[in-house]
Design goal:
This protein is α/β, with parallel strands linked by helices. It folds into 2 domains: about 10-35 and about 295-409, Aspartate Aminotransferase, domain 1, CATH 3.90.1150; about 45-275, Aspartate Aminotransferase, domain 2 (3-Layer(aba) Sandwich). It has 16 helices and 13 strands. It has helices at about 10, 40-50, 60-80, 95-110, 125-130, 155, 180-190, 210-215, 240-245, 255-260, 265-270, 275-285, 295-320, 350-355, 370-375, 395-409, and strands at about 25-30, 90, 115-120, 140, 165-170, 195-200, 220, 230-235, 325, 340-345, 360, 365, 385-390. Strands 2-8-7-6-5-3-4 form a 7-stranded mixed beta sheet, sandwiched between helices. Helix 8 links the parallel strand 6 and strand 7. The radius of gyration is 21 Å and the shape is globular. The protein starts with 7 loop residues before the first helix and ends with a helix.
């Protein structure tokens, strides 16, 4: 394995889970379902509940501090994504945020308008958009290659024209794992006058992207998969957000934070989300000058990706050398996130049960990618075995996984 930019012991020291007695000896390979929480996030959450668990934005000291803690989370999350704070919206989950966003577009688009969706997505992303067909919106599908699961640009070009008003896609699939060319899709969408919504849930744990560089008009991800609390984060280009119909109370129509998040926000968890940015700065400091980047967040992103690529290579080499399992998605670590799905003669969950006897925490199923499973000719009820990790996974855990797979596949 090549030299790692992030020393595993220093990274893992920033997560209480790695010191938790009940988790000792357990190798965590279900990070795509939710990551461990960073100490920086827990500290902010604990302080909020202890010192400022009052209605925020009031006139007394505790209330003012509570509001300031929430404001800081908007600012810090925006900085991590290289946008301004008016892009940021917090909601109860990405599924809920996408549902509300889809409903807003349903009131903005006109019958006969066209949207493009994919069959590579988690159903929470694609389903919310497909429902717009009930309002007279034409839905076109950008379909994956049935052998590789890839979203190819020529297939997108075939469904794009000046009738398309929205393209919705994943940054990467929670099963295929291949990192999609979002910046190229943004250029194509914008060229025909469409906006681009990106489900970043499966990519963001591997480094929060620079949204200016990416070109997306909307980018959604889950804070609980990016080392934070159970919240959904939605970045929406401010001009677009103000054009969409208000989804909140009528008297909050002029307040950007309220228009696309009608549910009452979890104040403490919003405040705690600033800890995600704190943690990314800690990652940057540990990486030092081993990676490049214009600011701590870009350096953290570069270090996390480099770490994961180095960790994934021996696992992918091992899997590519077996003929009794089929890897879904590319075998090249640089082309994918370390969310690795395997087809096996047994249901994925059954293999995961056996891996648990070796202290490997993994999972099996269809992971709400039902349409993708069907496109790949995989029975959604049979599913796949999914092995997902992030930059805090250690080389020793990768070797433990390989040993367990050797015994159980």
């Amino acid at each position: 394995m090549t030299k790692l930019p992030l020393e595993p012991a220093r990274i893992r020291a920033l997560f209480p889970a790695f010191a938790e007695p009940s988790l000792q000896g357990q190798a965590f390979f279900e990070n795509a379902g939710g990551s461990y929480t960073a100490q920086a996030v827990i500290d902010r959450l604990e302080h909020y509940y202890r010192a400022t668990k009052v209605q925020p934005y009031g006139v007394y000291a505790a209330s003012i501090e509570a509001g300031e803690a929430m404001n800081l989370a908007f600012e810090r999350m925006a900085a991590a994504l290289n946008v301004t704070a008016d892009w940021i919206h917090f909601g109860p989950s990405t599924s809920a945020n996408t549902y509300v966003l889809g409903n807003a577009f349903g009131g903005w688009l006109k019958p006969g308008d066209v949207i493009v969706v994919t069959n590579q997505d988690h159903e929470a992303n694609t389903g919310a958009w497909r429902r717009l067909s009930q309002r007279g919106i034409t839905v076109r599908e950008w379909s994956v290659d049935g052998q590789t699961g890839r979203l190819a640009l020529p297939a997108l070009d075939a469904v794009l024209d000046d009738k398309v008003k929205l393209v919705a896609m994943p940054h990467c699939s929670n099963v295929v794992g291949e990192i999609n060319p979002v910046a190229e899709v943004a250029k194509r969408a914008h060229a025909v006058g469409a906006v681009l919504a990106v489900d970043g849930v499966s990519y963001a744990p591997h480094g929060l992207p620079d949204l200016v560089e990416l070109g997306a008009d909307m980018y959604l991800f889950s804070a609980y998969k990016t080392y934070g609390p159970h919240q959904g984060v939605m970045a929406v280009r401010p001009e677009l957000a103000m054009q969409l119909p208000n989804q909140g109370h009528f008297f909050n129509d002029t307040k950007p934070r309220y228009r696309l998040t009608p549910a009452g926000p979890d104040h403490a968890q919003i405040a705690a989300s600033a800890g995600i940015a704190d943690y990314l700065e800690q990652v940057s400091a540990i990486a030092g000058d081993s990676v490049g980047g214009s600011d701590p967040f870009r350096r953290a992103h570069a270090a996390m990706r480099a770490q994961e690529i180095a960790l994934a290579r021996p696992l992918l080499d091992y899997l590519n050398g077996r003929n009794d399992v089929n890897l879904v998605g590319p075998g090249d670590a640089e082309l994918r996130a370390p969310t690795i799905a395997l087809r096996h003669r047994e249901p994925g969950v059954e293999v995961a049960k056996r891996l648990a006897k070796h202290d490997i925490m993994a999972s099996g199923g269809n992971f709400y990618a039902w349409r993708l499973m069907e496109a790949l000719n995989i029975d959604p009820q049979h599913g796949v075995l999914r092995l997902s990790f992030v930059h805090y996974t250690s080389p020793e855990e990768i070797q433990s996984l390989i040993k367990a797979l050797d015994a159980e596949l």
